[in-house]
User: Fold Threonine--tRNA ligase from Saltatorellus ferox.
Amino acid sequence: MIQADPVPQVEGPFPLSTLRHSTAHLMASAVQKLFPKAQFGFGPAIEHGFYYDFDLPEPLTDKDLRKIEKEMRRIAKRSPKIEKETVSRDEARAKLQEWGQEYKIEGLDLIPDDEDITFYFHGEGDDRWGDLCEGPHVDSFQDLDYVFKLQHVAGAYWRGDENNKMLQRIYGTAFWTQEQLDAHLEWLEEVKKRDHRKLGTELDLFSTHGEAGAGFVFWHPNLGVIRREIEQFWWDLHTRGGYKPVYTPHVSRESLFAVSGHLENYSEMMYAPMELDSLPYRVKPMNCPGHALIYKDRGRSYRELPLRWAELGTVYRYEKSGVVHGMLRVRGFTQDDAHIFCTPDQLAEEIAGVCRLVDTVLSTFGFEYKAYLATRPSEKTIGEDAIWEKATQSLRDAAAKVNLPLELDEGGGAFYGPKIDYKIKDALGREWQNSTIQCDFNLPERFDLHYTAPDGSQQRPIMVHRAILGSLERFVGGLIEHFGGKFPVWIAPTQVAVIPIREEHADYCRTLSERLQEAGFRVEAMLEAAHMNKKIKHAQKEQVPYMLIAGEREAEDGTVAVRRRGTREQSVVPFETFLKMVTELRDTKSLELPDAEPESV
Assistant:
């Protein structure tokens, strides 16, 4: 794994986000100088740089980016200060109409009535350029010591709506020093190397197919092995945790999702209805309505609770075509879903149990994480305020029970209840949305769920929604990038490659392969008539964790020459020593590839 934060920390006279936002303005002024008919969208600072959207008469090329950079440097030398101007809404509209900036006029209408309308200007003479913007900005380009680079151009729908016109988005970044910029560019190269789509092709892991539709992943055998191992690990943990498996249909009557509230609050993400037997049906966007129906199938007693039901259930959500991305944003995915039905007295311990399970799973893959308390959204929610407050407090209490710090995500809850969201940090220092625990008092009300209390009264259960891995597609796609395709032994598609030095050593290598297979390992016996070095190169390319190379001496002594992934060094050890070591690596789900123990002399 590479350093999580590769960019040296250097303090500047302004926050880095302010520098980047100002550089986006500088870039826009250079674009208009080179392309006078340019129309401007928005140009914010983002996590690793900035972008600006443009409506231009012709597509931009890499050569154009270099021209824009050159023009930016020229304009910066003639910008002794950046000036702020506050105007009335009518004055702003008149100014934008004079400039012919239609997108900016639309942007003006998005500014709340109680906020100031401000413009920022830089440059002198013919280079003077202004933009509708709330700021803040640096004081001057001319007297500032910093570096920037324009990186690439992408398409982006105006305001993210695929029904609007596609604009050209220029991405760039800025830092206070060249050292920072160089480190960032090196980090970006590592990101490219680890891109799960690139590795998916190189390692024959998965594919997507236009003839099947965008957003649907086809798992190849190599990735199927990884998924199977992860699923088995998941089920083993859940069985020990008292969960029982359930399975629910992929298609249900539309009325089911009306009861659950998904049709009302989630319809834009649902696939269109299918007319069957004069009734509308939908593919499911969630598993929870099906679990509620199973609960409701018969009467329940407090003695049965808590009920913990788990399902690796495939769901379907209509993501916009502009955001579909490999395995990370898809339209059909398998969610490691589970629902807990419990009494109020059991709630805190049940949530705490899920928090412990999340920690076990994420730490097994080597992930650090942060947890966030997501509270009630401002609109499109169901349930009374008192119910939301009770659910939110239950999450706080459970987190305190397991000493889990929570950061606040105001308004980030689901439409039916608050939740704890987990964000993991990968080997490149990037955060990924992952596990979630949602406390729901509303669906039991909507489905009229009950249990018989000790006094004989009928009471509502509390429903806890939770997903540990989240989407298997998204989790595994992120895992490919986290490990860079170099999977640990326990989930590697091929765990050991056995390579004879010459053809006459094939029988011994066949015996080694059979021994490993009997011990439950996935082995590739490379016994075909080809040069040993070619086989080693192939195994290295396939990122096989261990290669066992054997010739006449190894066959006589019962040893193997062990070569680890990514190294040229070999160590000769008894085969039994290697088998014991690799078995421990697999069974403990180790993330490391230690050297084999050297042979005793």
